[in-house]
Design a protein that fits this description.
The chain is of the alpha/beta class. The protein has two domains: 186 residues, Rossmann fold (3-Layer(aba) Sandwich), CATH 3.40.50; 82 residues, Uridine Diphospho-n-acetylenolpyruvylglucosamine Reductase, domain 3 (2-Layer Sandwich), CATH 3.30.465. The chain contains ten helices and eleven strands. The strands form two sheets. The protein has a six-stranded mixed β-sheet, sandwiched between helices. It has a five-stranded antiparallel β-sheet with strand order 7-8-11-10-9. Helix 1 crosses helix 5 and helix 7 packs across helix 9. The longest helix has 30 residues. It starts with 9 loop residues before the first strand and ends with a strand.
Amino acid sequence: MFENLSKNQKVIVGVSGGPDSVYLFNQLLNSDLKPHIIVAHINHQTRGKQSENDAIFVKELAAKHDCIFEYLKLDFQKFTGNFEENARISRYDFFERIRQKHQADWILTAHHLNDQIETILFQMSRGAELDGFKGITEIDYQKKIYRPLLNIEKKEILKYLKQNKHNYRVDESNSNNQFSRNRIRNMIIPEFEKINPNFVKTFSSSFQNLQGMLEFASESIEQWIQNNCQLTDNYYSFNLQKFLEESLTVQKLIIGKLFKMLNSKGITKHQIKEIIKTLNQNKAGRVKEFGPDHQLKIIKNTKREVVIEKLLE
């Protein structure tokens, strides 16, 4: 389960008090790796007294096993925009601060196989582009984030906790089907399981095949850019005719990849559509915005080049 950990490493473990994180915590305690565990808990204050009781439960769990306890109390009322996204950013910022404070090797979270399925189905419901099907990443070497439970089913987690009589907290808001992810978890996945009782495992196998295809596509696009794009400090350029010889799918992937290389935020489907439309019109002098700091334009010369250049400040 912990293939990416070494013996006696120091790890930050996000523990909410729910079954998934309690399972992860206990699996670490019982492993032969003997890690030094720092328990990190965030109180979002969204459930009043229940949120406070979660924090007390996790603090006592950490103390019982002589683990350092790190705590963050957030005021969700100060968040503007998407609450879930703001909460996610706040969590990982907190985890990273704690990791640096303790000079820890990894940040571990308890995302499991059912979370992965929920994420993919959610992305599908929103009409995701190819990147949207990458799902939750198991390991991020740059950010030192490791999610060792991504191949573990939720029912396996609950079975282990029951058999070993481990207590955990129950977040009643998870049964509120007003939230999209809850509807997927509580209503949609059970319907798939009526059709195929092994749906979760079947999905996992299909997802692994998809990941292989995505990796192949990503490597192919990187190779295309390497072979066909010229790079300087201020701009990229490539031959428009070479670009137009590619299929529409490949064109979208090239534009998406170049955009990601130059911008901190991702490109929208509408932006890709408009850029592809402009390039296929093949008219010299046409200019399109390419993120806040760059523009794309078609240059009239013997090769008919596309240039993506950095805007002057």
